[in-house]
## 1
Amino acid sequence: MELSFILNELGEDRENYFNAVSPPIMQSSNFTFKTVTQLRQAMADEFETNLYSRGQNPTLNILRKKLAALDGAGDALVFSSGIGAISVPLLSLLQVGDHVIAVKNPYSWTLKLFNEFLPKFGITTTFIDGTVFDNFEKAVKPETRLIYLESPNTFSYELQDIKKIAGFARARGIMTMIDNSYCSPLYQQPISMGIDLVAQSATKYIGGHSDVVAGVLTGSKELIRQIFDHEFMNLGPAISPHSAWLMLRGLRTLPLRLQRSFESTKIITQWLNSHEAIQQVIWPFDPAFKQSQLACEQMQGCGGLFSFTLKNTSFANIEAFCNHLQHILLAVSWGGHESLILPSIASIAEPEYKPGDERHQLIRMYVGLEDPQYLINDLQQAFNKLKL
Ligand SMILES: *Cc1c(COP(=O)(O)O)cnc(C)c1O
């Protein structure tokens, strides 16, 4: 299916709403039926019918069709957050006694899910360095039910060889799931590489305007339906029709926004690479990146999220640099119109800081839609205020 068709036409039955170009926000909790027979049919199959907006809703349905098509998936579910799109399918797939193999540096709340939440249900996790394929083989146990990937992650950008791991898992009847937030469906297609379930935080690129928190899960129709019929409807992570509409609006410009971030990031990372205050730039499409070859093989683009370290790694220096920025905002999240900075030290108390630990030194930058020169000027004036 062509990208332009998906983003502009798919799912939009405009004759149903006065031929409006922009779909309506169907702000209704419930839907009415003419006969008890019709109502009974709807209640028997909430997955396929607009009955109650904790399940389906017409605005949401347009969005689901587009999101499934973007991932080349059978179907999609939309959640009220990205972490909901990760936790709910895990609760669906796993049961007491099951074992998970997960990459060792996933998104912070995903790590908490494996470390603190899932153990309450007798589910154990082995964390591995996912850059080395053999580690997956070594970690497999008879009770391994799921391999959980995040490629690349969003702070240090380790990749996994997705196709190879998916093939390995499938041959052993182990399910696979990936957090694809970093790439979005435009820059990485895990389903075509054999992954069973793809989650992403739609708060980032899909929403794209820093005004909605949402998550997306895609997979085969059977798997998505099974998750919908049980955990999704029981745990209730539905989004509002208004949020669904904001995501539809975000999708219209997704290719343009990603391309702009990607192009600006090439310029900014190149500039940083030759800057005297910089020790290292970490971005999967940087020629010096450790897994640059794998990145170019399995990703179609790279977007605007990267990290760097300063030569002067003192806590005070990193803090001063971030505080001196005048336009690049100090905040969590990414994927919106605005450029952001987030240093590792924001989650480390000064006495715990180890100046020699690369993970502690990392400063994450997200390049938004501003003119790249405007951002470079902001970085330069902050560097000028530091002692090198
Ligand atoms: C932000 C993020 C999440 C969580 O998404 P929310 O929408 O904040 O719940 C999960 N994974 C990655 C990689 C993220 O960046």
## 2
Amino acid sequence: MKYWSPATKALAPYIPGEQLQDRQYIKRNTNENPFPPSEAVAQAIHGCAPDTLRLYPDPEARELKEAIAAYYRVKDAQVFVGNGSDEVLGFSFLAFFRNGRPIAFPDISYSFYQVYCDLFGISYQCPPLTDRYEIDVNDYQAGLGGVIFPNPNAPTGVFTPLAEIETLVRRNPEFVVIVDEAYVDFGAESCVSLVGQHPNLLVIQTLSKSRSLAGLRVGFAIGHEDLIAGLNRVKNSFNSYPLDRLAICGAVAAFHDQSYFEECCARIIRNREWLTAELESRSYFVPASRANFLFARHPVVNGETLYSYLKSEGILVRHLAGPRIKDFVRITIGKEHEMQRLVEALDCLGR
Ligand SMILES: *Cc1c(COP(=O)(O)O)cnc(C)c1O
């Protein structure tokens, strides 16, 4: 620590979910997809000749931008790609939020936002979610330097309707609103349809969750060309080649296998609805989720106890500290038999 700068000493890094190796778990703690990536992705990566790895990848990852632009019917110049959406978020904070004004995000939200603010010296405010764990867009007013939230929100799974997001974006043309759509493919509605009318709206997505590619590290942003140009300026001041050749190849293939993608998402949605009903019938409180996870509160047992009990049963879920969320666990939706096993384990709780 002797050589650490004061700034490094002051950092409080993001704590990712556990990746334990001590035994085989039903691992439902980091919102990974339970299904493998598309066969087309495996083929594309195998087909990427190792000899080409001598060469730097395309710094613009043009092929991937084109695939994403075609998928969302936007211009190539409206797409930015990066090494996971965490990196795209980091570049976005640098490009749009370091403006001297505080930014805002909900008190219950993705904890990386706070980490980036601290890293980049951005001040922030955290308006509380409503009692129903919803975002009230009226809490985000003029004078801010930006707004960011996940939609559906994490770790609650609760979705903010597009009309409300549009109101927020229209009312506040002086700052950028970033909608982090990491979970949008599990039954929510994307804001990409709004970026054409709103130059201050940036939508960020990832291939980590709905396309089963957390290990490939690919995320992207869609917005007005000026926002994308700003992101490119930051990226090219930091790392010109954030996506390697294998990542570009695999990600392009993922966008070309629409039917497998839809099938996996549909199965996760079905399992989510099943688990929601099972938990509700046992008196758990479960806010309606449009994501690939549930945020569940037992009527009496606290979140930490529930987490530890499930871990002892070989089922890993996520417990997050925080005054309003400590009584919940976040359960990533898995395969049918995994969800059945979870419910069986919960039924034995306290016996
Ligand atoms: C998982 C997650 C991300 C990060 O995804 P990567 O693309 O794997 O970096 C971003 N935002 C939210 C809300 C997430 O849950």
